[in-house]
Amino acid sequence: MAKISNGKDNCNGNEKKDSFAIEEFGADRHGLLTKILTDFEDHLTEKAGHCLGYHVNLDLNHLMDLSPLLRFHINNVGDPFKDSSFSMHSKKFEVSVLDWFAQLWEIEKDECWGYVTNGGTEGNLQGLLLGMDCVIIRTLTTGEIDCNDLREKLCLNKDKPAIINLNIGTTFKGGVDNLDLVIKTLEECGFSNDRFYIHCDAALSGLISPFLEQGPMFSFKKPIGSVSVSGHKLLGSSMPCGVLMTKKKYITTISKNVEYLNTLDNTISGSRNGLASIFMWYSLNVKGRLGLQQDVKKCLMNAQYLRDRLKDAGISSMLNEMSFVVVFERPPNPEFIKYWNLSCEGNMTHVIAMPHVTVKILEDFVNDFVRERNIWYRCGRIQPPCLAEEIGTYNCCCSIHGKGSLQNGN
Amino acid sequence: MAKISNGKDNCNGNEKKDSFAIEEFGADRHGLLTKILTDFEDHLTEKAGHCLGYHVNLDLNHLMDLSPLLRFHINNVGDPFKDSSFSMHSKKFEVSVLDWFAQLWEIEKDECWGYVTNGGTEGNLQGLLLGMDCVIIRTLTTGEIDCNDLREKLCLNKDKPAIINLNIGTTFKGGVDNLDLVIKTLEECGFSNDRFYIHCDAALSGLISPFLEQGPMFSFKKPIGSVSVSGHKLLGSSMPCGVLMTKKKYITTISKNVEYLNTLDNTISGSRNGLASIFMWYSLNVKGRLGLQQDVKKCLMNAQYLRDRLKDAGISSMLNEMSFVVVFERPPNPEFIKYWNLSCEGNMTHVIAMPHVTVKILEDFVNDFVRERNIWYRCGRIQPPCLAEEIGTYNCCCSIHGKGSLQNGN
Lengths: 410, 410
Prior knowledge:
Number of strands of chain A: 11
Strand order of the largest sheet of chain A: 1-5-4-3-2
Strand content of chain A: 5-15%
Order of helices and strands of chain A: HHHEHHEHEEEHEEHEEHEEHH
Number of helices of chain A: 11
Mean pLDDT of chain A: 82
Largest interface: A-B, 98 and 98 residues
Helix content of chain A: 25-40%
Oligomer: homodimer
Radius of gyration of chain A: 24 Å
């Protein structure tokens, strides 16, 4: 596991101290600041080379073109569709980004409202507002909503309208809720269109969905109320950002006019990051629909490649349809998890085949995993965990459910 | 008013269309994108030269040094004091920024908790949480809290604990609530320390307060619970950002562990902008306490200069003690307001003497205002509005309360 030790050595310079104290520097302040920043860039470059466990695209070199904008404060305070009296804003870029998503999600420009957010969570908060009674619905092994459980809970709450938070791509398993089946369940339980509101949390898959051969997973042509997508996931951005989009008729109820800014205050935060809109606008332009489609195709293929390599090696693993997220058994070594920047839940971990993750990186990863696994489990003398409950018996390679030994595929 | 026409002509290129449609470009996509961005930079540069009405520092050239960081996605998800398993974060910079503010606001490092926010509003939401019963307290002419009204309202609500949102520098008038008087009022009404919580909204003045000759307006040595300050106001940043700081004992109640990220989720948004911490860290280092002190001194002097010039010209105006915000009569011409990027409330407007606002700009502004005012009010044959109620009779120059004519000082 030589790479892991190297990785730790390379970034130690940034991990010895908890912080870079401000004002401890003497005469050569500027030289010291430059040194800290250059070291930090090296640290980030090193980390990016083996960052597998998160839904972020790290291929961002083109965003350096936006450097000249760093000398401005750009603040899109308030409603994106109203000019605010603070003139240093980028709302034209923001509206362009929203127009692009309106077309993608099949809603007429004059029927929709939305804004560029700081990330998915803010969009979800806005989409669902706050402080409501909450009922949790069970999920299937794939991670998607269990519509039988939904039906039961709906029947118990027929007196109230239903606000439903759907996941179009869950974080951990990449599970996609079946929108058509949810709507059918609502109708069968007697909830008419005016008595339910569906918010789609499409953090990652919002930009995958339109480029699938099977057609998109959701659109405003179906009775949904709002969608939230992250800009720093598939598309990629130097900072967290995203888009929230809803139908105009919903937003008018929570808007209030703020005279001070001569604009409408209907977003969670007053001041908003104007750079985020430009970053999204630029990346959408540089890539275009064709580039995104190619990214999606490549990522789907790479995820399948990884799943196949893991299965060949007798490692319990699962890949949902139309997903980049390969779920498999959790490595028992924290150093290994840290080096490959994996994230874990219970017995599971996952690798997300984002655009910066090449076949070469995946090969290195599988080779490292198989080699280390032989040491962890003493060449099969210790049993790796059973993952049947988490990912299904079909995907489990343990001694009970699996077909082969640890050495399969080696 | 030649400048106003010029300003409009210069930026028209960016205002003719509502958006920059994505994917309408042909072969020379990159050239067109560069052209749009270069035009937008020119537009921002032009606007920055006469942007007077907002609390943002537009002197940001030094932030171009951070350009190399744009090629990374830096995301400080979750608690700043816990390493998260997503490795591309800048929490060391964030903690350095927090340490700096802990010292500034007189709280021991191991007693405080906080994070770098996307701006003041997010900090205020977090500081006060959501969904509480709300009682509005009246203000004095200066904009600060009326402690007699506070006393009355406290007496009516003795059965409940009090959560108080104090303004250390109101947006419109720069009014500063008297913290000592508020605490005294609470005590006199029978509210012991464990039955009140004070949040200080110190968006602008949080960074002015420590550098005043009279000593700071607040600190954690007094019984306050949390403070929120903006990073893009006095300090300056390419994007909205800020700091929220509270006592550790308060945050533990709302924290919950998210295994997926191996960190604590106790901020409003999950993902957070890692660039913001580096931008604040860099500016604090480049300026240092001495630089900020010099900025505060310069801005206070420039605000006084503007107030004096307006008074000399017979224009109703007010400047609170230790404030950069000069409040005066609202110009009746929307074009004038737009050109100087003023913000208005009722009969009032204000100019904020931020670091990028030089004496030369203020001179140009006063000359333009006085010249145009003679036209608007036909050399005194029409009366400008009386502002006695808004800013006090002493500050009002109207025909009833004022001493001179419009021509004073010309």
